[in-house]
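> run fold Aminopeptidase N
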Amino acid sequence: MDAPAPQAIHLDAYRKPDYRIESLALAFDLEPEATRVKSRLQIAYDGSPSDLSEAALPPLWLDGDDLKLLSVCVDGTPLDETEYRQDATGLSLDVTSPGFLLEIETEINPKANTRLEGLYISSGTFCTQCEAEGFRRITFFPDRPDVMTVYEVTLRADKALYPVLLSNGNLVESGDLPDGRHWTRWEDPFPKPSYLFAVVAGDLACVEDSFTTASGREVALRIFVEHGNEGRCAYGMDSLKRSMRWDEERFGLEYDLDLFNIVAVSDFNMGAMENKSLNVFNSKCVLADPDTATDADYASIEGIVAHEYFHNWTGNRVTCRDWFQLSLKEGLTVFRDQEFSADMRSAAVKRIQDVRSLRARQFPEDGGPTAHPVRPASYIEINNFYTATVYDKGAEVIRMMQGLLGREGFRKGMDLYFERHDGQAVTCDDFAAAMSDATGVDLNQFKLWYSQAGTPGVTVTGEYDAAARSFELTLSQTIPDTPGQSGKRPMHIPLDFALLDPDGQPMPLKLACEEAAPTSRVLELRAARQTFRFENLDHEPAVSINRGFSAPVNLSIEHTPATRAVLMGRDGDSFNRWETGQQYATGLLLEAVEAGGEGRQTPEALIDALRETLLDEAQDPAFRALALTLPGEAFLADQMKTVDVDAIHIAREKMRGDIARALRDELLETYRGMQSNAPFEPTADAAGKRALKNLALGYLTASGKAEMWDLAVVQSRNSDNMTDRMAALALLTDRQGPERDDCLQAFYQRYRDEPLVVDKWLALEAMSVLPGTLERVKGLLKHEAFTLTNPNKVRALIGVFAAGNPLRFHQADGSGYQFLADRIVELDRINPQTAARLIAPLGRWSRFDGARQALMRQALETILSAENLSPDVYELTSKSLT
Ligand code: B3K
Ligand code: ZN
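> ok
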């Protein structure tokens, strides 16, 4: 790299803005290659009155990126070029009066905007993405979240090509213009930061519904989609209405405008965006019907629609002071969407799924070269900080607060937060202060969760004294060093806790110093090491700790075969029932990996426990499916000092085979028993049955009986829904032979005109464990179905290969690494944000053997030596190499 390395921005350098924007009027003349943007900003000096002598007024800084400046006027007078200074990052104006009207005209080229930040075109529709710093690619503006103002937006465009013209807030006027053009004007009465601004213009179909809020406001709900997709909006619409009701009931939060719009677009850098009253969605995250979407897609749509809607209060009405506070809105809103989904579906199953995803995405991040705190202290490119840590660990931090304050206390804290901060841009400290002030709970030590990175390790040991009928529990914590942070302070860790008797019943927990003996407690670990002594216990207890995964830590605890059986079979906390089984299987698998993969026969104790769960009709099928799913290869890798992808794969397949052979009859019975002739319903119950049925099918194909594969072939061809079809194909993609190719080919032919299903097809090829996968993936880059300009396609093929196929990505010759490096360099020129998101698998190099380490570092060096690297890719690649 010849250009100077991009500079980092630091949290402690925060300064409040010098100027307020009292109002903003924007007018767009939309043309694909030359859109004109006129902005009128009423500006006021926001410093102390003593600074008001004219000479002392600081210059006004306006961010700008890739804009053609046409004119600047102050109070009606055009400025000449000596009165402002422009560089590649913006404009600095001399200010002579504490209040003035600034008018700026710029020209932009949406068609050339392949970064998908700012104003761009997706399948002929104009749309915007402004978070985090896209607004500066539309017009010059102080593009930071603590500058909030009211917007009036006028849109003018060709009426035939763009009959729908949308922006934030309420439609106030519209009309026709000469030359086949038309216009609309929008006003958003709520002050907002620029990142929540949005515009959409296109020829879109609209599905309409309505919602009446608790206080009687009638809200029009609209989902705009490409023509032909109207039939795929029902689930998203229903999710929206249920979210609106839920937020009223759980948090007393009502919608605040008469209109709520969702627009689906096919080219989008992430899932969706919460622009005020005009949410823009990746079509994948809102469109669904049984023929094209799986149960997992339905669940994700429900969660994402809710998430974006919930941002209206947590993010929009109260926003972030600066981007270091991103988790203020994201962690809190993820927590809210998790709670919503838990209420809509099975809370136990939802919790297990969330923990699985935390462990798959966040724990490795927290233990790798890009580890950062929930509130980072510095960044080069903020788009690189929309991470699992900020989102998912951030949500865990909020969940722990709810655990410490109780649900009622937490609600009081939320009420106080809105009472104090509605309409403001605030910090994570302001949030914690509201929680603490509303309840009197001291959160000072707890706030280390915001500033210390790394997953804490908690070790649990216990000793039962039969003569004294007492049990002594010792907890100790260590917080690992992470880049730039060492010697950390002990955290405040809330651990939900019970002691179970041999029947799985919770025993009274009487501490020596207390009279009360509840049957469950939250143990608050605050010191590096703490001991708790419980009295009056008639049996040696089974320790059920970190129930419901109350704290995001790595727990280390030894069980005897007897206590393990109690926890696995009878713990009333279903999370720990699941967790104990997973720990048991993990221990066995890691032993087998040590032995090169094959290891010994899977013990009867595990098989018996799995049989019991499989056949236990009292338990939710979705839970049973999760309990019978072995820990994934990536999770196992994360438990090892030096990862051996081949041995992990062999060990896991061997155990699957053992289980399949031992339980074949029961699995076949389950496979048949979970079939249904009823029409597809995306309910949690029906989805749970399909999950268990497909789990059984997976094991059956692993049992070594060739005829079991016929079940998968038939299911892939004859199912009436995408869930079953995909489940069968995911098995078939790993099996060499003509059926595989025939089934995948038939699938592509059937769905070649459905972009979202074509993504699934690409992902199936990318996740195959067969040896020729990399070659097939390379071939698919040239397939008519693939393009580097669409982020969904990139993630489906390249992303799934690199992050979801450890066996083939890490093949010993390093060809997987070099393939990824080349694609990242190529994509960086088109779309840096999406390119940067592909780097993480290479950053894990230190966990591999010497030969792979060298090859992975070499691939990272290839990226770093490319010319004109974006700050996005530069930041993550350089950090990954340290
Ligand atoms: N707030 C957006 C994410 C924007 C990402 C910008 N790189 C979606 C969400 O979290 O709801
Ligand atoms: Zn969000």
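The pocket of zinc ion (ligand 2) is lined by residues 307, 311, 330, 333 (CB under 6 Å).
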